[in-house]
Amino acid sequence: MNIQLSPEIPLDVPQTLARYRIWGEDPCNRLHDGVFRRVLALDGELHGYALRWSGPPDDARITIAIPGSRSTRAAAAVRAEVGRLLFLDADVLGFYRVAKSDAGLQALIAPFYGMRPTLAPTPFEMLVGAITAQQVNLAFAVTIRSRLCRRFGRPVLVEGERVYAFPAPEALGKAKVGDLRRMQFSTRKAEYIIGLARLVARGELDFERLATLPNEQVIAELTRIRGFGRWTAEWFLARALGRGDVCPAGDLAVRKCFAHFYSRGRALSEKAIRRRAAAWGPHQNLAVHYLLAGLRRARAKAGGGA
After folding, report:
1. 233, part of any domain
2. What is the pLDDT of residue 248?
3. Per the count of CB atoms within 10 A, which of 2, 61, 239, 270 is most buried?
4. Per the structure, how many domains does the chain have?
5. Domain contains 33
6. d(Cα 134, Cα 207) in Å, to the nearest integer?
7. 139 CB contacts (<8 Å, ≥6 apart)?
8. Low-confidence ranges of the chain (pLDDT < 70)
9. pTM of this structure
């Protein structure tokens, strides 16, 4: 089964999906030779799919292949998941109108034209990833998360490539702390992931209900869970729920972005960052994403990298 999409433009698919290669290979989200492959779990079955694209950002076209499937429910679910992965609902043009009058953002429009922040395919996957990334560099976080996926996820061949379905909450809920410790998770992170998985498997953490709540209530509910602070909750709002009016001002990388683009390398307080970000209104999520990409680009140029 093939699905054709003509998304709202501009959309630069390679730059949007680049995060799945920057810090290392992700066995659940395989980006290789211009094809993105993933496995969707639906009604107890696994459906592998391959995403391809063509055209420039102002004429982007997307083709999704779901090999061996004739399920209309699977097709609808895959279409919805791709919409999240590429954040097709993002108001990119509205953001550009705001960015043109911002000293830090205006120079980032041209090199990153059409780029969008990817949203997590599922809230559970996002939170596991967030726990993994706490207080370590992202390359190491991707490495140990990949070990988790290969150990507890189910492999599927998608057009001949092995892709792992992200581990189900039920599978991770049965894991032992020692299993994760052998993958180089800290004891606390292992406990946080297993505890989260058990909450989700028992239905005690309702992501659909969370999605209906205002930001501060979502933060309040998530931070009651062991292992989750405001940092994780704000990234959940931005990367799982796609809320535009969120700036994770406590994130070290975000703070470095503001220092680089707005204060000549001088660190700003969280309060100052939030005050400046508030001027972007519903475009804060996009602005932060562009600043992060811009800082990586500036560092790569300074270091002679690509």
Report:
1. no
2. 96
3. 239
4. 2
5. yes
6. 21
7. 23, 24
8. 304-306
9. 0.93
Whether residues 72 and 182 share a domain: the answer is yes
Alpha-carbon gap, residue 37 to 161, rounded angstroms: 8
Choose the final residue of a domain: 167, 183, 205. Answer: 205
Handedness of CA 229, 234, 237, 242 (dihedral sign): negative
Last residue of a domain, one of 175, 205, 235: 205
Is 245 among the domain residues? no
**Tens-digit pLDDT profile for residues 70-113:** 889 999 999 999 999 999 999 999 999 999 999 999 999 999 99
Same domain, 163 and 294: no
CB-count exposure of residue 172 (10 Å: 0-12, 13-18, 19+): buried
β-strands 155-158, 61-65 pairing? unpaired
CATH of residue 167: 1.10.340.30
Question: 167 with 27: CB under 8 angstroms?
Answer: no
pLDDT at 16: 97
User: What is the predicted pLDDT for the residue at 306?
Assistant: 39
| Helix runs in the chain, H state only | 13-17, 19-22, 72-85, 92-99, 123-133, 138-152, 169-173, 177-181, 187-201, 207-210, 215-222, 230-239, 252-262, 270-278, 284-302
The answer to whether the CB of 306 falls within 8 A of the CB of 300 is yes
| Claim to verify: residue 272 and residue 149 sit in the same structural domain | no
Q: Is residue 179 part of a domain?
A: yes
- pLDDT for residue 301: 87
| Cβ atoms of 125 and 166 closer than 8 Å | yes
In contact, 70 and 2? CB cutoff 8 Å? no
Distance between CA atoms of residues 120 and 127, nearest Å: 9
